[in-house]
Amino acid sequence: MRNKFADVFYELGASDPKLCIVVADISPAGSIAKFRTEFPDRFINTGVAEQIMIGMCAGMAQRGLRPFAYTIATFTLYRPFEFVRDDLCYQNLPVTIVGIGGGVTYSTLGGTHHAQEDIAIATAIPNMSVIAPCDPAEAEAATRWCATQTRGPVYLRLGKAGEPVLTDGAPEPWEFGKLRHISRGSDVCVLTYGPVAKMAADVAERYRAQGKSVSLVCAHTLKPLDESGIVEVLKSHDQVVVVEETSPYASLGSRVKQLAWDAQATCRIDTFCLQDEFIHHYGDHAELLAAHGLELDAISAKLNLM
Amino acid sequence: MKHQDLSPGDAHEARRNAFDAAAARARCMRYRRRILDISQQVTALHVAPAFSCTEIVDLIYNELMRWPEAGQSPDVFLMSKGHGCMVQYVILEEMGILERSDLDDYCKPGGRLGAHPDFGVPGIAASTGSLGHGMGIATGMAYAERAQARDGLVYLVLSDGECQEGSTWEGAMMAANLKLENLIAFVDLNDFSGLERMSEGHPAFHPLLEKFQAFGWEGVKVNGHDADAIEAAVRARSGGKPFVVVSETVKGKGVSYMEHVPIWHYRAPSPEEYIQACEELVEISG
Ligand SMILES: Cc1ncc(C[n+]2csc(CCOP(=O)(O)OP(=O)(O)O)c2C)c(N)n1
Ligand SMILES: [Mg+2]
């Protein structure tokens, strides 16, 4: 996703002289390095200084530029939180904050590098839009949208590398603020977003192997959430399963349950997310997800799919 | 507050004479080698950041901190540049505070050592890894020592990169306001952040020592690979203010292909590169 973002940003930036990227001492991956060489005035490195990264983006946006802020997910939101809230959100400026490695992608770097509550934090701020693409193709679509939108600030939560393409055969295009059906069925609906979508797709596959008719739905826009789309999903399936890589608070799972209550939905709902816990466990991304309970067999066992 | 053996005088001289620079050089070579060995167990780790501050961290643990009982010190070591923790881990291993098996399990499931230090692990004073936290925590620790009439010294290692964080300077100003003479900071001034050379990308970063002095600190600039010089500088401080050793270092010091080359910020050497690195290691005297 990181490289896809870089490629698309380079392409868009080459033709839009207002597009800028402000990083805080993070090596520009892939084509961002090329962007830096060709457009040095539109690549700004603040050094290890995230507050000024966000503050500068605000000022640049107020004076006519279209900046993207870019660093490791934790450092986009946590260190400069009030700058994000006051400078970007309160002033409602169209700045995109690109967080690389949302969730626990940076597994062995430990808790200081895990953005496990970023969705809750970002969605809690008025005016903020929150997008977490499921695969590189969605990262591309979201980047294109961010580069021209005029709504206000966006938190674009990306994975790092190696996410498979899942949305190739999707019957509908990516659209901001709308659920995206990757496949349509009638018994079970698996709702997901972010790099963990691959695991959700595998869960859907296990249901299919049991003869169920399954929908796989990408909820890439966490805010504004497609509430009517979710109610529609709740009403048209016997079971809804949510798989996401974020803490339980303000998670998609908790939102789905709220909406289900209000809509008097009668389907079964199962939710899987990260634990509300700092887990001191090292290993690769999949191993850390497993330590949080996000693992295909563990989920399957809870859903009687084994 | 009373601090031990820091004013010029007999105690200071005695201590100076006891400092064995040759032993320190041998230790540092051993630590670098051990880090290279561990690098072969994982796909990535921060070698160059550790090699940059090997002499500084060795000096703090083995010469400056007091160890009246094995493994117990009234003083504190705080690694603010958490990603440099490999050198801390191998020293803690040699001191018997961490086990060999801890380092064997570095970054592995079941292990307790990750790429950044975690509070709660033996010998680790604070969870660092997000840059710019150490100065505030160290200021609080030094204040707590004084408030409770204890003579503990707080030794803090900062990277130059984290001196770009505003939080570092908020802490620096407060430490000087409080006249925390029991706080001794070392800046690992290798002139590289993750992305580029400070003097090229952020020329206003320099001069650094003068910035600390303007914030009310006493300080000196030394060669950060010359343990003898660092030791003498710390012992010769006059007190009454927090003290900073702006230590000029080389990121990746000791391995030719790593020195000043940004990719080695976070990369494990291949087996061939590992052999070359081991062959190149020598005792460093500045
Ligand atoms: C707040 C924060 N921002 C960004 C990072 C990512 N990061 C890790 S190391 C590093 C810079 C490395 O340079 P420096 O701080 O000078 O350390 P050294 O040269 O001693 O390795 C950065 C930006 C971080 N760990 N914390
Ligand atoms: Mg540095």
Write structural notes for this entry.
The complex is a heterodimer of chains A (306) and B (286). With 306 residues, chain A is an alpha/beta fold. Chain A has helices at residues 2-15, 31-38, 50-62, 73-77, 81-90, 118-123, 136-148, 197-209, 227-236, 252-263, 285-291, 296-302, and strands at residues 19-23, 43-45, 66-72, 96-100, 129-131, 154-158, 180-183, 188-192, 214-218, 221-223, 239-243, 268-272. Chain A starts with a helix and ends with a helix. The mean pLDDT of chain A is 97. Chain B has 286 residues and is of the alpha/beta class. Chain B has one domain (10-280): Rossmann fold (3-Layer(aba) Sandwich). Chain B contains 12 helices and 5 strands. Chain B has helices spanning 10-18, 21-39, 47-52, 54-64, 85-94, 100-104, 134-147, 166-177, 198-201, 209-214, 227-235, 271-280; strands spanning 76-79, 154-159, 183-189, 218-223, 243-248. The longest helix of chain B is centred in the N-terminal third of the chain and has 19 residues, at 21-39. The two termini of chain B are 34 Å apart. At the A-B interface, helix 3 of A face loops of B. Bound molecules: thiamine diphosphate and magnesium ion.
Q: Superfamily at the CATH H level of chain B?
A: Thiamin diphosphate (ThDP)-binding fold, Pyr/PP domains
CATH superfamily of the largest domain in chain A: Thiamin diphosphate (ThDP)-binding fold, Pyr/PP domains
Spatial ordering of strands, largest sheet of chain A: 2-1-3-4-6-5-10
Quantity of strands of chain A, as a count: 12
Biggest beta sheet attributes of chain A: 7 strands, mixed
State the share of residues found in helices of chain B, binned by percent: 40-55%
Strand percentage of chain B lies at 5-15%
CATH architecture of the largest domain in chain A, by name, is: 3-Layer(aba) Sandwich
CATH topology name of chain B, in short, is Rossmann fold
How is the biggest beta sheet of chain B arranged?
Answer: 5 strands, parallel
Quick one: which chains have the greatest interface?
Answer: A-B, 29 and 35 residues
Number of strands of chain B: 5
What is the straight-line distance between the termini of chain B? Answer: 34 Å
**Portion in beta strands of chain A:** 15-25%
User: What structural category arises from helix and sheet content of chain A?
Assistant: alpha/beta
The share of residues in helices of chain A is 25-40%
Query: How far apart are the first and last residues' alpha carbons of chain A, in Å?
Result: 31 Å
Gross morphology of chain A: globular
Question: How many domain regions of chain A?
Answer: 2
